[in-house]
Amino acid sequence: MSSIKTNNRIDVADVLRGFAVMGIILLHSIEHFNFYSFPDTSGQSAWLNFTDRAIWDGMFFMFGGKGYAIFALLFGFSFFIMNDNQERRGCDFRLRFCWRMILLFLFGCLNAAFFTAEVLVLYSLVGFVLPLVCKLSDKKLFILAIILLFQPLALYFIVRCLADSNYLPPTLPTGALWGATFKVQSGGTFLETVRVNLWEGQLVSLAWAWENARVFQTAALFIFGLLIGRRGLFREEHHQAWGHILAGALIAFFPLYGLSNMLPNFITNKALLSQILLIINSLYKFSFMLILVSGIIFAYYKTSLRDKMMILAPYGRMSLTNYIMQSMVGSMLFYHWGFFLQLGITASICLGASLFLLQLAFCHWWMRSHTHGPLEYLWKRATWIFK
After folding, report:
1. What is the DSSP-derived secondary structure letter of residue 240?
2. Burial per residue of 312-347, b for 16 or more beta-carbon CB atoms within 10 angstroms, e otherwise
3. Which residue in 36, 179, 325, 367 has its CB near the most CB atoms, within 10 A?
4. Which uninterrupted H or E stretch holds 141?
5. What does the alpha-carbon distance between residue 22 and residue 246 come to, in Å, rounded to a whole number?
6. Largest Cα–Cα distance of the chain, in whole Å?
7. Which residues contact 154 (CB under 8 A, 6 or more apart)?
8. Number of neighbours of residue 255 by Cβ within 10 angstroms
9. At residue 2, does pLDDT exceed 50?
10. Quick one: CA torsion of 19, 25, 30, 34, rounded to 10 degrees?
11. By mean pLDDT, which of 106-110, 224-228, 240-244, 355-359 is the weakest?
12. Is the residue at 3 inside a domain?
């Protein structure tokens, strides 16, 4: 009986995943894990005021909407690997993947108990699109992803606003939900924080994702990740394709970014402007994400930096464990139930970088004797519990 050839692990995907999760912890640290409470900086030095502003703007430019996007792209790629390996064995993985999404939802709820802005619940819900579309041709998948990327609901609202200048796109009433989460973050006990985070916190997180173009974009990124897997674009022999992707991303990014900053000076209809910016901001962040991914892939395959970049690979292989542990530790550090640290932006990113380095060291130690991170192992075992 001949052995079945399956996909081997692709290290550059782990490097990309590690880079994304590193960016996420740094960004969440300066946000105090979605708890926007900062000390008065009026009396601090001009130098610290400068670094606070530079770090805040620089981190959001670099990782805001991009770290999560890389994470989502790799989510679709991972689906391809698992689905393709099972198809080679003559198995249909789609129902198994749906069960896997239910498990991810539970992991997301665990994460949400500590951190209101987590993405795993969103991924678990949007992830059901993958088994629905995975049998489509590459061309149909690409067209579908492009449609989703251009935010069809926002396009509809733009048409309505152009037809009627008084039209107001519907918004979700989230003010009370934001208030409830901030109140418990700033004065609640641990159990009160968990209760509010799991209900009001999750509702406001999903509402924010819906109103900020994350739902359609996440589905598009999942599909693009699936296509990357089909075309083998993360493999070294196909790295030159990323040159074309990089060129296209660079050509798209600069005019989109310019439009994002310029249009508020020319469009007075705020309802119309908000929907146009929703699409443009989503597209320029997507373009910048492709610039980052292309740059990392080129550096990995075509320079002498491969060994140094592999330092991030264990961190990427344990992304689920690291992501949830970030939330637990961050909540404990910044929320009222824990240490309730009141730090400026510069101190916060130093703390976030220290947490990243501690996690990185733990990952290297753990992966010397294990093939999976702790939560990754539980997720894998639970995925196959019913055979």
Report:
1. T
2. bbbbbbbbbbbbbbbbbbbbbbbbbbbeeeebbbbb
3. 325
4. helix 138-149
5. 22
6. 75
7. 213, 275, 278, 279
8. 13
9. no
10. 130
11. 240-244
12. no
Using a cut of 0.70, tell me whether the model's pTM lies above it: yes
As a residue count, the chain comes to 387
Task: Record the tokens describing residue 185, joined without a space.
Answer: 């973050």
List the structure tokens of 213.
Answer: 């173009």
Residue 5: inside a domain = no
Residue 189 CB-density burial (10 A; 0-12 exposed, 13-18 middle, 19+ buried): exposed
The amino acid sitting at 82 is M
Residue carrying the six token digits 């989460």: 181
Token pair, residue 119, equals 């993405």
Secondary element (H or E) of residue 106: helix 94-112
Report the Cα 29 to chain-centroid distance in Å.
Answer: 15
**Residue 14 CB neighbours (<10 A):** 21
Q: Is residue 320 part of a domain?
A: yes
CA-to-CA distance for 39 and 42, rounded, in angstroms?
9
SS3 at position 85 = helix
For residue 87, give its domain range. Answer: 11-383
Q: CB neighbours of 50 closer than 8 A, spacing ≥ 6?
A: none
Instruction: Say if residues 67 and 27 touch (Cβ distance below 8 Å).
Output: yes
Q: With respect to residue 2, please indicate whether it lies within any of the assigned structural domains.
A: no
Confidence of residue 225 (pLDDT cuts 50, 70, 90): very high
Question: Mean pLDDT, the chain, as a whole number?
Answer: 96
Structural domain total, the chain = 1
Total Cβ atoms within 10 A of residue 131: 19
Residue type, 21: V
With pLDDT > 90 as the criterion, what percentage of the chain qualifies? 95
Question: What span, in angstroms and rounded, lies between the C-alpha atoms of 250 and 284?
Answer: 10
